[in-house]
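Dear colleague,

Following up on Tuesday's group meeting, I ran the structure prediction for the two-component complex that the binding team flagged. I've pasted the input sequences exactly as they went in, so you can double-check that nothing got truncated or mislabelled along the way. The structure tokens for the whole assembly follow below. Feel free to forward this to whoever is handling the docking comparison.

Inputs:
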Amino acid sequence: MTVADGAVAVSATVAPVAAPERPTGHRYRIRYSKLGRARFVGHLDLARILERTFRRASLTTLFSEGFTPHPKISFGLALPVGWESRAEYLDVSLVDAIGADEIAGRLNPVMPAGIAVEDVVSIEPGRQSLSSVVVRADYSVELARLVDGAWVPINPDKLNAELLAILGSQSLIAPRMRKGIEVEEDLRPLIFNLRVMNRANPAITCRDHLNGTSVEMTLATQSRVVRPEEIAALLSRRGLAAEAALVRREAQYANLNGELVEPMSQMLLGSKRAE
Amino acid sequence: MPQSIWPRLEPLLHKVEKPARYIGGEGNLIAREHGSAEQAKFLLAFPDTYEIGLPNLGLQILYEMLNERAETLAERTYSPWSDLEELMRKYRIPLFSLENHLPADAFDVIGFSCASELVFTNVLNMIDLAGLPVRELDRTALAEGGTRVPLVIAGGHAVSNPEPLASFIDAFVIGDGEEVIFEVAAAVSSHSTSLESGTAPGAARRDLMHELLRIPGVYVPSAYTIDYRSDGTISRFGPVIEGAQEVVEKRVIPSLADFPYPRRPLVPLTEVVHDRLNIEVFRGCQRGCRFCQAGMITRPTRERPKSQVREMVTTGLALTGQNEVSLLSLSTADYSGIESLAAAVATEHADERVSVSLPSLRVDAFTVGLASEIQKVKKTGLTFAPEAGTWRMRRVINKLIADDDLFGAVESAFSQGWRRMKLYFMVGLPTEREEDVIGIAELGRNVIEIGRKFSKGASATLSVGGFVPKSHTPFQWTQMDDAETLRSKIDLLKTSLKVRALKLRWHDPEASVIEGLLSRGDRRVGDVIERVWQKGGVFQEWSEHFDYGLWLTALDDAGLSLDFYCFRERSRDEILPWDHISVGIYRDWLWSDWEAATAQEVVEDCRWTPCYDCGVCMEFGVENLVVSTTAPAGGSQGTGRSLPPPSTEDSAQGIGHGDQAPDSLETPQ
């Protein structure tokens, strides 16, 4: 093969080509789940995995400008390593307009085990970012104690009593590390619901070796993300030893004029779902 | 199927770093139900962390091939990090596979793939974590006592001298694994069938060893004895079991075209090194650099057909979604159609924003054309390996790169827009003098000067390692520099840099010395490895964990010395601990090349110049297989381009033959 011989003279009669317009692409919001062993895959790892998954699905994303172009995928709240979720969100800009069902249909066969696309809607560009919109989230949590390398459940009645007491408190001052200094903070306004769940509830995927007591929680994500582990720590400080053996995020909510809606809701997006 | 240990492992994953290392579930994973007893079940083990081991092509090739057939099966395991290891020992969780999370004893064979010597203590650690005695003798005793014991085998470049690990491994596999692995599997299968039909484990194991030692390319250490002289050298090394080969010859697959693996590369769920689509474009190397064990032991060269490379790239990209392709080999710029191949690959996939990278490049085969092809999508890092600071030194090591070649290549790169280069060098080479060490800095400064013609920000990193003489090379008889000497040379380099844009990185000289002990050690060195392991000396290949003191103490306790293994010149008639392993090169040729080295005589690329009869092609009835009759462009040796003459100032005092090193070199004590 030979190296290019140098510029070929441009004929004077060729019209100048217009600069290509910066493509705006077609934007979609995707809700995905992350269950089972996939919960140990970290957030940054997930970003890398999704980049590859879009390629394997032959879905061409728009890319950012600059020295190392990245696919234009923006994530909502990060999901800590070890948590499962039924409701994680991302927004992505694709080059082509593609139907929501087709997007899910192309992605799911090539997604890693445990990670699945649950819902897709098309959204207008310029929508508020996911992370700024979400104000609270629902969790289902297995509270347990780790004894000799195995999880042991917590007495549901004692737990129930403590949770009711917490909800009945006017304020809950708890220590928190901010920039290396321990400060005090009132947790109570950031807690919206705590309830021991009926273990017969079929929505709960109890696994024999993860023997815990199931609790529903609704906790704030703004002004900051309150974690179920903090509720477990609170219980421990109040005399009921507990750890969050498994956390699953069940839903995320945005505040639309005082009403709580999910990030995919039509009310929030104000646009029709993609065909 | 045996029980998964996952329920016991899961609660612990919250307490460890990077739990995703242990979950499996990678893209293109092959998880199968275990078959009947007859099926030979392999646990392929890489004795380092997941991040280092996952991309290992050799392991992935065997993984796929073993899983393609009903009569064999393979799962993978990597060394757990220390935090999980502690918990595994505490809660009695054995070494486990990633596919089905099965304990090691659910497998018939545990196969270690050893890429470097400093992982040897990890090998012992993993055997121990598997619940087995680390010594082969003790495993045989267990079997004779009636317990079924998996077979422990090892392969990889680091065991081309298998003796240091020989007390711990049942059988070594030397050379290419693609064919021999199935012969081993057949023997393992007979063993399992035999056990099923009621044969006692002791007898079955003996039969298995007898069958294994007959397989070409398989070395069974327990079938040999070694006698030593009072001076420590070997007086006799010979087989004691009938059927054991006097010399074990490596296996060679004649053509890569028959093995288009991996077809479905694993895609990790977490960060790993070399995270790209890696395609092996050729195996072997015939440049004859005298320090390079990899080149010597993998001869002859077998290039993969271009069309197959392109196909593997296309399907690999579709199956992995990677955005970078790396064309792998010992010296990819030597691939005889490299420009058109790189151009084709880069062009075919440019729309997908896929970039092409070539690992360290031979400087003389690098051209403007090649540079422009691989930088099309994104400039990946550029690494060159001149290895020595002066032309004289390079003739001695037979790395035939003239200064002008390096400068030409660097200029190509800078002119195409690169700003930073990495240059690999060694210190401690045979016949080295101070000016050779300083020459490294001079080359670096010249590179910066060239770069500055194109950009003010041009910079270069000199990456310097201590030279470690390796088995099966012309330098296998030489002494190496001790840690103090290596360190003083690096200090000399530090003060010679003089330019801010030139940075220096160096490998720990003490680690180099221990690498030297392990690469040319004999079977007694096993005692040292065991002691270091017992004291917790794992992950020695990681600079944060390397502990020179542990090794020195272990040597002392074992009554052995670094002077014997590393710091002396060996004579021609000394029986070397690896003489019974053949990589196909005539020992006499290696010795004559060693003599030629000190006379600065060079040996050229035998693909383009007449054969100099190293022995490899005759041994195996295989010849260098190249895909194009066009030599790489741009000043490759042997293509009619005349090389600069030998330095006239060198009086070429012969070293070797038991003589002392030339006066200008400090003689290490």
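The CA atoms of residues 539 and 545 of chain B lie 6 Å apart.

Cheers,
M.
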